[in-house]
Design a protein that fits this description.
alpha+beta, four-stranded antiparallel beta sheet, three-stranded antiparallel beta sheet, 18 helices, globular, Replication_initiator_prot_A, Plasmid replication initiation protein
């Protein structure tokens, strides 16, 4: 199994599994109680009859929303804004009318279904187990071309993730998730089981080191996977195809079932295919644009402590203008890691000194130039990427002032070539600096209304 794109999953969600690992569901609630490390944990879900409990493809959507939220910089208020077409791409789905309709139903289900977790939600920074009640998506707005609310190519989606999920992600209680591999699996139930297994590999109190094997009781595992059956034969049949694919694809080394009746046990043996790296370190590398595969290689070669020292050094030198980044932070940081003794660094933790020009190694500063302008950022990008990037940049500062209808119009104006994105963003940032965001938003709404 290869891993080209590793993102993240929130550990509470993957460990407790709030999405039923079945392709179709016809139940409106479930209630699971189990013992974990000496604690009794109860997890409940109640859904509207028209949608049924979250299941199947909803797992793809929750994984996409978690990583979208991280990519947006993990805003404290939990809000996200994204076009429907971009969210489809993050889910690994085709951009067709069928999947627009499926996405709408998934979002409605995640918005209207309520969860209650008693004694099993981990507040990792405080080392405590808490109670949590929430909807995965606490608020949901979207634009549509008709009163039915059907999604189309122009649909913009805005929402807010549950406070408990936001706090957990922002605290770093996450783990790597190979979304490229997950989305390549053939069926929703296989993708859901992969995500459940990948969460169960981690000790919730000590998530740095994944397990090599996992032993579970068959009936209890059905509860964990939210498979609506207590008949051992039915459970084995429901898991058989996902097991076969996960073994064939190289994620599981083997699956062994032993015992009889309700005492049957499953032993999962995992294939260890990447160097374990704690999520906080991985996320920090991502802020510099360093690919996950490269980060793992660096950990193997240099160790965690040295890499943290290098990143701290890099931040100090850039902050104090000893180094000025040009092409990319990733290239600059990689050069520093490879040649740490060729970069000035203050003793202990003092601020980096402003060295005289002759004291700097100009030849070694070659990859460290100045940050690109807004025009450079958007040069040669296709129109759809220009629109998505512009909306993301605007939304960071104007999320409370521009609603989904405004963003719908703005995205279409960019796609139609009726909006100069560079000037728009320059004016928007100038308004932020002058504390004139309200005025800028009103003028932009007026301009969009005239198009």
């Amino acid at each position: 199994m290869t891993s080209k794109l590793t993102r993240f999953d929130e550990l509470n969600l993957s460990r407790l599994n709030l999405i039923s690992a079945v392709d179709q569901a016809d139940t409106n609630e479930w209630d699971v109680t189990f013992e974990s490390q000496g604690r009794i944990v109860r997890v409940q879900c109640e859904a509207l009859p028209k949608y049924a409990v979250p299941h199947g493809l909803d797992s793809d959507v929750t994984a996409a929303l978690i990583n979208l939220f991280i990519e947006l910089g993990e805003p404290e208020d939990g809000r996200f804004t994204v076009s429907g077409t971009t969210l489809l791409k993050l889910c690994g789905w085709h951009n067709t009318g069928k999947y627009h309709a499926i996405l709408r139903n998934c979002l409605e289900r995640l918005h209207t279904s309520s969860y209650s977790v008693s004694g099993g939600w981990r507040d990792h920074p405080k080392g405590r187990w808490t109670h949590a009640k929430f909807h995965f998506i606490e608020s949901l707005d979207f634009s549509s071309s008709d009163r039915s609310g059907a999604f189309d190519e122009r649909t913009m989606i805005s929402g807010r993730l549950a406070d408990a999920i936001v706090a957990s992600i922002r605290s770093g209680y996450v783990k790597p998730l190979d979304t490229e591999f997950m989305l390549s699996l053939s069926r929703p139930r296989t993708r859901a089981l992969y995500r459940i297994l990948d969460g169960a590999r981690f000790d919730p109190q000590n998530p740095e080191q994944p397990l090599d094997t996992l032993d579970v009781n068959l009936i209890e595992w059905a509860d964990q996977c939210k498979i609506p059956s207590t008949v051992p034969g039915n459970i084995r049949r429901a898991l058989s195809s996902p097991h076969d694919e996960l073994v064939k694809r190289g994620y599981l080394r083997s699956v062994t079932v032993t015992g009889r009746g309700k005492e049957q046990q499953i032993r999962y043996e995992f294939v260890r295919e990447f160097t374990p790296m704690d999520a906080v370190l991985a996320r920090r590398f991502r802020t510099y644009g360093v690919a996950d595969g490269v980060a793992r290689k660096l950990v193997r070669e240099h160790g965690r402590a040295f890499l943290i020292q290098c990143m701290d050094r890099f931040d100090v030198l850039v902050r104090d203008n000893v180094l000025v980044v040009k092409k990319s932070k990733a290239a600059a940081l990689m050069h520093l890691i490879a040649h740490p003794d060729e970069y000035p660094y203050p003793a202990a933790k003092a601020a980096a000194p402003a060295l005289p020009a002759q004291g700097r190694k100009a030849a070694r500063m070659e990859p460290l130039l100045e940050m690109p302008s807004i025009a450079d950022e958007f040069r040669d990008l296709p129109a759809d990427q220009v629109a998505e990037k512009a909306i993301s940049r605007l939304n960071f500062h104007y999320r409370r002032l521009l609603d989904v209808s405004d963003l719908d119009l703005l995205r279409q104006a960019v796609l139609d070539g009726e909006m100069d994105v560079v000037k728009l963003l320059e004016d928007a940032m100038a308004a932020v600096a002058k504390l004139q965001k309200d005025e800028f938003a009103r003028e932009l709404k007026w301009r969009l209304g005239k198009l």
